[in-house]
Amino acid sequence: MRSEVMAEKNRKDTEGQFIIRWKSRIGRSLATWSSRRPAKLTSLTCATASGVWRFKLQGLLSPKVTLQGTLAERGSRFGAQLAPIQTLIAGQQHRSPADSCAWPHRAAEPRVPARTGTKTRLEQEIAIYRSPLGRN
User: Fold this and answer.
1) Organism's domain of life (predicted)?
2) CA-CA distance, 71 to 77, in Å (whole number)?
3) What pTM value is reported for the model?
4) Are 27 and 88 members of one domain?
5) Domain co-membership, 21 together with 33
6) pLDDT (tens digit per residue) in 4-63
7) Same domain, 50 and 72
């Protein structure tokens, strides 16, 4: 009987050690797995987020290319419209030294006081420019 008691005691001790050992191994495995899992989830999350951002970026690049094309087209069209105007201005600038002789009194004219109203100043400016042309 004594051997059966000892066998039972040894069995319980062995079972207890086995359970303790496996619990610690399972605990370590779970700790290792859980410490690795967020890293994997984080990298997966980052990969997904970068894919989403890449998709959004490509969605923005297409309108950008379209807008750049439109801008270049409008720039060339306005440049073509602006070229004749610039030649007219250049022609007027070449003529302006000859015309400036007709306006010598302009520099000698007293400045219009700033307190006068806008309408009065404009009327005085118009009168100044009409006088050399012979209009009243």
Assistant:
1) Eukaryota
2) 10
3) 0.33
4) yes
5) yes
6) 888 888 888 888 888 888 788 777 777 776 666 655 556 667 778 788 888 888 888 888
7) yes
Structural element, H or E, at residue 80 = helix 2-100
Residues 77 and 87 in one domain: yes
The amino acid occupying position 30 is L
Name the CA dihedral angle for 36, 41, 44, 50, rounded to a multiple of 10 degrees.
-120
Domain that holds residue 121: 102-136
* Total residue length of the chain: 136
Confidence at 73, pLDDT banded by 50, 70, 90: very high
Say if residues 132 and 102 touch (Cβ distance below 8 Å): yes
124 within 8 A of 112, measured Cβ to Cβ: yes
What does the alpha-carbon distance between residue 126 and residue 13 come to, in Å, rounded to a whole number? 118
What is 26-75 written as a DSSP string?
HHHHHHHHHHHHHHHHHHHHHHHHHHHHHHHHHHHHHHHHHHHHHHHHHH
